[in-house]
Amino acid sequence: MEPFAYDLDEKDIKKERRKARELRASQWWKRRCAKGVCHYCGKKTPPGELTMDHIVPVSRGGNSTKGNIVPACKACNTKKKQLLPMEWEEYLSKR
């Protein structure tokens, strides 16, 4: 079992991933990316290079809703992995 894995139903995880794909195709998401700013580091990033990140990861009980999804540069998204917001803040404070 992964260190952060929860006993989530695979059906629910697939549902959330499907909702995320639908949001990624929406005008809302395209407008968010058009700003070209990473939610975490604030750096200007070409819109096509921004990735979708769940603030509270699906694997940790997060949902694919507009309030839980942000654009992130690849570097921040890769570093954040499956951390919760408080864990991410702790990680940043130690850097």
Helicity level, as a percent range? Answer: 40-55%
Gap between N and C termini: 28 Å
Shape: flat
Q: Determine the CATH topology.
A: DNA Binding (I), subunit A
Query: What is the CATH-assigned architecture?
Result: Orthogonal Bundle
Q: Counting H and I runs of at least 4 residues, what is the number of helices?
A: 4
Query: Mean of residue pLDDT?
Result: 91
Structural class comes to mainly alpha
Explain briefly what this protein structure is.
With 95 residues, the protein is mostly helical.
Structure report:
The chain is flat. Residues 1-5 have low confidence and may be disordered. The chain is 42% helix and 8% strand. It has a two-stranded antiparallel sheet with strand order 1-2. The chain has a single domain (10-94), classed as DNA Binding (I), subunit A. The chain has helices spanning 10-24, 27-34, 74-80, 85-94; strands at 51-54, 69-72. The chain is mainly α and 95 residues long.
